[in-house]
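Folding Query — how this chain folds
Tokens — whole-number codes for backbone shape
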Amino acid sequence: MHDTLVRAIGLTRAFPGGETAVLDASFEIERGQLVALVGPSGSGKSTLLHLMAALDHPTAGKIEWPALGPAAGLRPGQVGVAFQGRSLLDPLTMAENVALPLLLAGADAAAADREAEDLMRRFDLWDCASKLPEEVSGGQAQRAALARALAGAPALILADEPTGQQDREGARRLVDALLACVEAAGSALVLATHDPAVATRLPERWSIDGGHLEC
């Protein structure tokens, strides 16, 4: 089995107007690798995660997914993404949001419901399972988005500031649950954060500033 999930060579993402969010980045992500991606706001963390997930496309360089196949088949199933902003679907309940990737990947409805319940319990969300996103706090919505990214045990989890709306104790519990899920599944994790207390929980740290990545 090929263990390289992502390979980037000279990866660059420039935007109209001259801003370059990622500049000449080269790296590999292996199965089971746990990485904290650190850097100040606006340093390129989110853009780099979007490129890894094939949600954005480079303006130069190359990115590929040797063990996962072509970009069109990465989601749902192979790559789970927890975005920095609110991303839950408003018409769906919290539990339905978490189960959605499973259903889109072809899971049986009962099995999807069971896995969604398990994930929501892990992230202290089961008491709001039937609520709509507008009825819960920002911290609860953030935890649900992370649980949704983990649904189906994707090979690669990309989490963008997943503790940004948690207090210190809530962030600790969230990272505990996240690492337990990731390690049980053997998934790789890239977690973007500017919180040193979160970054130190992962064994490997990459830094990015002004689009320059240091691995």
User: Anything to note?
Assistant: The first helix runs from residue 45 to 52.
